[in-house]
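Histidinol-phosphatase
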Amino acid sequence: MPFTFHTHSGQFCKHASGSLEDVVKQAVARKMLVLGLSEHVPRSRAQDLYPEEDGMTPTDLHTAFAAYVAEARRLRAKYAGQIEIMIGAETEYITCTSLAETKRLREQFDLDYIVGSLHHIDEMPLDFSQPLYADIVEHFGGDRAGMFKRYFELQYELLRELKPEVIGHFDLVRIFHPYGDHVVDPLCESDEVRRLAVRNIEYAIGYGAIFEINSRAWKKGLRDAYPQRDMLREILERGGRVTISDDSHGPDDVCMHYGRLLGYLREMGIDRLHYLSRGGGGSGGGQAQACVLDYATEHEFWQANGIA
């Protein structure tokens, strides 16, 4: 599809690759209509840095984020005639101060939009590695339903405080949950977990959020894109708006698994997508407008990229 609103580059994210401009160039080559840039907001505690950030400090992360916004603005001007660039950020919610920090950051840098994502549960990384995921399961005494409940409770707090325009990988809590005929999925088996997830869906729909259908889930070995089909049905049945994102971590990931994504859209009966645009607004941020793309699975983008 001719857009993505969830992207990273190795220039500003240590677990990604390539420069931010290379990501833009690849999006142009793919004939995208809109490219949303969304580097992670900086973390403010040394204990929250990841192994690949060894030798860095929280101050370094804040400096890098300011450099990201400056580079994104340069690229928006340089490629204005070829692609629309939206400048945003992906959230972190680690401690009770994280959300207030994100609010200040958004105001300071006048961002167009934010991707509301949850990557930690009780300060423990959720999606960094399978062993760290297992540590969270152990933290809950093996009670995966309790772990899932906590995830959706924290996600609800994030939604209420930040009201992100784009909901990032809604059911990321499933990333390393085992699959199999005899494995219990709390979202399927626990009425309480499902109730919390649906509450979050309804709240986000209520303030006008757009849910991304995130193709990176296939790189992690999941059956479906995020959200998995049961949660996606809950969103669609309630009239929720959806977009698509590749969650790219470098230029080689731009439009990653979009061929498979086209099949997922058709299987789920989705032919209307939403996307963000500045719509000719002023030079400042905060200009994001939700726009509609009908007949999405018939768009010329697919054929232009050799996707049937």
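thats it. Residues 3-304 form a domain with the TIM Barrel fold (CATH 3.20.20.140). Residues 176 and 227 are 14 Å apart (CA to CA). bye
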